[in-house]
Amino acid sequence: MEIINLGEKNSIFNHFISEIRNVEIQNDSMRFRRNMERIGEIFSYEISKKMDYTNTKITTPLGESWENVISEKPVLATILRAGLPLHQGFLNYFDDAENSFISAHRKYKIDGDFEIITEYMASPDITNKSVILCDPMLASGLSMKLALESLLTKGNPKHIHLVSVISSSEGINFINKNINFQNCTLWIGSEDKEMTKELYIVPGIGDAGDLSFGKKK
Fold first, then answer.
1. Which run of H or of E encompasses 13?
2. Over the stretch 69-107, which tens digit does the pLDDT of each residue have?
3. Fewest CB atoms within 10 Å of the CB: 7, 9, 50, 186?
4. Which fold would CATH assign to domain 2-51+72-213?
5. CA 97, 157, 131 angle in degrees (round to 5)?
6. Pairing, β 194-195 against β 184-192
7. Strand, coil or helix: 153
8. Residue 114 forms beta bridges with which residues?
9. Among residues 214, 170, 208, which one has the least CA distance to residue 37?
10. In Å, how far are 60, 98, 171, 183 from 140, measured between CA atoms?
11. Does an H or E element contain 200, and which?
């Protein structure tokens, strides 16, 4: 699996990452959502370089021009609810894309332990298409794996792009070992080395869903 860390090279991308981490800026949920959206737009630009293009004749008011035009329609998939602002960033660039939505949440047990549950998915056929599956946080990696397994019931894609803004080292290793799809790329914005026993990434950002949409009970 190819792993690409966009945060390794300095760009405005790093500035947006710093803002979603900053506890003072995080208090503005609208700004947090917009920063996630902008991060999704930058990921979109980079992923678009991996896609197929066709040299196409374009008629202008003054003549004709031959331009390289993207020739495939990706499927944008996201894990609800935290992934919605990031998903919108992708949709801003891939405006003709098809869309998939998967629910995933922690189901807690009496002893405080939990398991990841996926209960809902809406998706088109993904056969021979490029699929972009995004989730802001890659902690243990289990949510991403379960979401991808659900998606693969809808067909055999041409290429899978997995996208996470903040990823733990453990989650990256888990995905690399446990997802065996041949044409798969993992895109991350930043790698954090630690996690708490509750599987929250350190330093991380906290709960991306709560920061975007308010705390849940």
1. helix 12-21
2. 999 999 999 998 889 999 999 999 999 999 999 987 655
3. 9
4. Rossmann fold (3.40.50)
5. 35
6. unpaired
7. helix
8. 108
9. 208
10. 51, 28, 4, 22
11. none
What radius of gyration do the chain's Cα atoms show? 18
Residue 11, both tokens: 């760009």
User: Is 54 in contact with 68 (CB distance < 8 Å)?
Assistant: yes
Phi, psi of 196 (to 5 degrees): -80, 170
Q: Taking a C-beta distance cutoff of 8 angstroms, is the pair 43, 76 a contact?
A: no
Determine the average pLDDT of the residues in 6-21: 97
Q: Got the DSSP string for 129-160?
A: SEEEEE-SEESSSHHHHHHHHHHGGG---SEE
Beta carbons of 7 and 17 less than 8 angstroms apart: yes
Question: DSSP secondary structure string, 27-56?
Answer: T-HHHHHHHHHHHHHHHHHHHHTTS-EEEE
Q: State the residue for tokens 């995905």.
A: 175
Q: Give the chain's length.
A: 217
Tokens 């914005």 belong to which residue? Answer: 189
Where along the chain do its domains lie? 2-51+72-213
Q: Which residue has the tokens 């055999």?
A: 156
